[in-house]
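The instructor's notes for this session suggest beginning with a concrete chain rather than abstract definitions. Hand out the sequence below and ask the class to guess, before any prediction is shown, which regions might be ordered.
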Amino acid sequence: MEISIRDATADDADFLAWAILTAAEGHLNKPSVWVRVFSGEEQERINLLAKLIVAEPRCIAHYEGFVIAEHKGLPIAAACGYIPAERTPEDFTSALLTVVEEAGWNHQQQVDLLAGFGVFSRCLPMGYEQEWVLEYIATKPEFRGSGVTRELLNDLLECGREAGVSKARVAYFIGNEAAKKSYRKLGFNEVHEIVDSEFEAQYGVPGVVHMSLDL
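After discussion, reveal the predicted structure:
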């Protein structure tokens, strides 16, 4: 199967919003964090995330960090790579609040929104490291298992090397054997796992495994 890989643009916002939502679902037995914080219809979540993807300041969800795999001119997979020190938690919070404020959310709704990430961030904390973090990895169902994801992530890892970073990091929900297998094939190894009882109560899995790779 022939695919091409390219940098994402602002015009890809809707597809990247789908990728972010899909990546957050993983194999969770309960609603993902985005479903929890953006309650409502699926299209509303897509719309809000699409605005986050192009919002300022440029956060971890900004389109500039994404690469996209295409087949016959159509996007079939996406993934993001970023350096936490350059896409800080404060950037994420500021961009997110800008989006929902423009959507008419009141102060209490904004407070509840940020609180909604509280338990999730215990197992997937945002930081300020000088590492190349892979995030928001999603492939259309009909193309999973075809090698597209690996090719896309290899391209993204090369972007990390070009950025002068010496270590890459990725994480997956405990029990997601497909993700573990894919990342191990790329050379990642488990470094630690974070478990949390409230995380398990909300998302149906004990926690998150963090993996590392020397670039």
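Then share the key points. The chain has nine helices and seven strands. The first helix runs from residue 13 to 25.
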